Amino acid sequence: MSVSSMTPAGPFWLHSAQARFRFRPYGHRMDLVYPPVVAFAKTWFRALDLRISMQGTEHIPATGGAVLASNHVSYLDFIFCGLAAQPARRLVRFMAKKSVFDHRMSGPLMRGMHHIPVDREAGAAAFDTATAALRSGEVIGVFPEATISESFTVKALKTGAARLARDARVPLIPMAVWGPHRLWTKGHPRDLRKRHIPVVIQVGEPIDVPAGAAAETATGTLRERLNRLLDAAQRAYPEKPSGPAERWWLPAHLGGTAPLPEVAAAGA
Predict the structure, then answer these.
(1) pLDDT digit string (tens) for 83-119?
(2) Pairing between strand 139-142 and 92-97?
(3) Residue 8 belongs to what domain range?
């Protein structure tokens, strides 16, 4: 690896998981699971000789709360988003759908790393949990597109990331990840043993979302920043498809065969 610039389920369990954030504030949390997981991920990166390039990591604060908002192209994005916070020595708490916490394998890890379950039928509880965590000094990771973008462009965003930053009075930090989709993404075979894959991570300048700001306006700004960061990451990517069969991992506007955004949205 090379780095540059650098299961229980149900309402009662969900309430208990969220309570851990209220009663175990930032600075007093015992992270027994997260550091070994980070170490394992870095060992995996080295074993695969992933060529990871990170820019802009200085925008992630060393202390205090922040919302880290990333594009979403693969099932592995959260690993690389978390990696971008390592220079600041931060552990990112991700908001993820409740079904991931219900899984017998991933559930214990997600709970052990103090990530935040999101029940889409009761989203207010997760929002309140994340807001409290931000106010206590945590970095919260959010994928505002909500699902993987099969067009490999930035889809329409939900307003949750902007509302979290506004209500908790913390910076909203945009970031783009490009490359992990070649290992595992929606609609394509998983290949977690593929070696020498470049991964580009771009972290942008924080966005201030003042009290009283319209979440829709801040979300529009966030989408503009994400588009800019993703475009820079895609154009800086050091590899091109080796042939027609490999063009699937490029967006259509760069000559790839990924579906156009409107086609991907219609099929979602």
Answers:
(1) 999 999 999 999 999 999 999 999 999 999 999 999 9
(2) parallel
(3) 2-242
